[in-house]
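Continuing the series of single-chain predictions for the mutant panel. This is the parent chain; the variants come on the following pages.
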Amino acid sequence: MKWRDLKAGELRKEHVGQRFALAGWAARRRDHGGLVFVDLRDDSGLAQLVINPERAPEAAKAAHEIRNEFVLRAEGEVVARAPEAVNPGLPTGEVELQVDELEIVSRSEPLPFQLDEENVDETLRIRYRWLDLRRVKMQRNIRTRARAVSIIRSEMETAGFVDIETPILAKQTPEGARDFVVPTRLQPGSFFALPQSPQTYKQLLVISGFERYFQIARCFRDEDLRADRLQELTQLDVEMAFPDREELFALMERTMLRIWRECLDVAIESPFQRMTWDEAQLRYGSDKPDLRFGLEIHDATELTRSSEFGVFANAPAVRYLRVPQELSRAELDRLEAFAKEWGAKGLAYLVFDEEGEVRSPIAKFLSEEELAGFRSEPATTVLFGADEPTMVARVLGALRLHLGRELELIDREAWRFLWVTDFPLLEWDEPEQRWTAVHHPFTRPTDETASLVDSDPGEARAVAYDLVVNGIEIAGGSFRIHEPDLQRKIFDRLEISPEEQRQKFGYLLDALAMGAPPHGGIASGIDRLSMAMLDEPYIRDTVAFPKNQAGVDPMTGAPTPIAQDLLAELGIQVLPKTE
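Parent structure:
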């Protein structure tokens, strides 16, 4: 028996008068007197089945048993719908299948939720993921993601990059997040780590003479989950010898243009806008600014150096936002509470009313020159941040995004791509009292600032760059250090001892000492790229089988305890959890 002659979503007006078999799931059943209508769904769309008891009494008998998500096979004649019954919202809306034979192939128990039900608990959705994945949105998400990956592969291969797999069982190295570790029976007491990225492997491949490498790589990070973060992620990983930043940027731009065009039917323009990290922090308070709205941050540090308002005069940085609305006292109180959640000590303000008069408890402390500098259009509020530059950027950046959403300033139809360049190389870790790498310890300092690694580490800049769209980082990369002496120097600055360098990175240092070409690359998180492209608030809805926010798979129950005999074979003892 042939299950079907055509997909349900492929029925068209030109098929009228022909006989076909269709197969799929019952999305909906409706009884209209003697007639039974069933919306049959498969991965191509919907087709309407009509079962008439006068035409097919056995089929009508079976039709009364149908419930949602039963699997059916129907055979009959394609007929045109009556003019008043045409559904212009469906590609198959002009026709229907008059059923002569109907078979219930598979039945479904009562469903834990309906596919068109809104606000279903996420844990319940993941518990029954096979059902959740049948929803139109989830089918769209997974298929669009697959199409994007196909485009990426095509673009990389066209540009001469070779697809090479790297190990999943790897050596544990210090990177940004905790590693997942894997015991091994053959070396009891020793552990592999699942890779957070193929960082050193891709460098070794380029050193090996594979001048252009790429991979759709699986990466693992044992970190707390959020709306935009996964423990298991997939990324496009790219590395090239003798790197040319302009060529790399152009490659990524071509790839993104094609993804947006073919997956979303959206034309975007290139080249993309560029901005240094310092400029992004100053103007937007973020290293991934959302450019779909204005509300830029302005600097008033020099203007307020001699201010009678001590908070401004004594602050290392004073910056402000002009909000296009006359905010009330209650609204200002809520914004101050929001700012304090982000680390601010308070929130100074100037409110200009409809007549342009200023209202603020700090106005009396400001000179005419200062007030003139802050003066804005009537019905405008000026919000200030005064603190260390990093704290001011953090607070005003968060306020900017919050106000953009609250005041509906964001153009939801726009796509704003941006390259952020020249990131800091190092940052000071206050709890550990040492310098740490902003990206990773293999990132190359710029030629202009390399000498600052010793004298002023915080001012050293990296040959590092991120690609951002609508406030979401969708790719990031850097040029790497290819000289062993410079690499050791960076390790020393990070307080990685010579013994630890040898133990953890000896193989890389050896490779760098044997003819390593200049090299660099970029990685793009497929999950976050899909999240941005599909405008999904939760990254888990771009993945077929995710874990929940607790890092648990409600569907399979993983992770689960391991039998004692297996633990013994691995030489592992599980200690009781202490409170």
